[in-house]
Amino acid sequence: MTPSTPAPQTPSDTDPAAPAARRRAPRRPAKPDAVLAAAVDQARSALLEVAAAEEIGGYVGAAADAERLVTHRFTALKPGYRGWQWYATVARVPRSKKVTVSEVGLLPSGESLLAPEWVPWSERIRPEDIAAEQEQQAAEERAREQSREAGELEGQQPADQPDAETSGAGEDD
């Protein structure tokens, strides 16, 4: 039988009041990987698989997303997408010079025209919307009242009240 070694205890295991260990966020590399940064032609050819050549404009630049992961951006000339940019993300495994395209797509830039943030229907109703609906209902009610009064003046039954003869009230069997 092999003796087991107890796991080392951290301060948070022994003291519940001790602060939890802080995890560091992954750091973004300061400069892009040289092999991936040079893969502009591969990024453009990957974009040509999803977009027409006339929709892909000039090269904007490359940004390192992580170690051995770079995103290339190109101006979008697609109608209706002024200010947007095509992107192609390329990667490679350690000690390899082979570039792999991971993802392509279209992203907005700072100058892009974007749809406004969605607002739920209940928050979109303005007081003037409610007031207009209430006024319309009041006008319809006034019109009904006027038609009732006009009918009573002429000795007729109002339109929304059934006639005693047609309703069957007072009939003998």
What topology does this entry show?
Layout: H1 11-14, H2 34-37, H3 40-47, E1 56-66, E2 69-76, E3 84-91, E4 100-108, H4 121-124, H5 127-153, H6 164-167
Antiparallel strand pairs: 1-2, 2-3, 3-4
Please describe the structure with a list of short key phrases separated by commas or semicolons.
4-stranded antiparallel beta sheet; 4 strands; 173 residues; alpha+beta; 21% strand; 29% helix; single chain
Walkthrough of the structure:
By secondary structure, the protein is of the alpha+beta class. Among the domains are: 27-108; 121-158. It contains 6 helices and 4 strands; from the N terminus they run αααββββααα. It has a 4-stranded antiparallel β-sheet with strand order 1-2-3-4, covered by helices on one side. A hairpin with a 2-residue loop joins strand 1 (56-66) and strand 2.
What's the short story on this structure?
It contains 6 helices and 4 strands; from the N terminus they run αααββββααα. The protein is of the alpha+beta class and 173 residues long. A hairpin with a 7-residue loop joins β2 and β3.
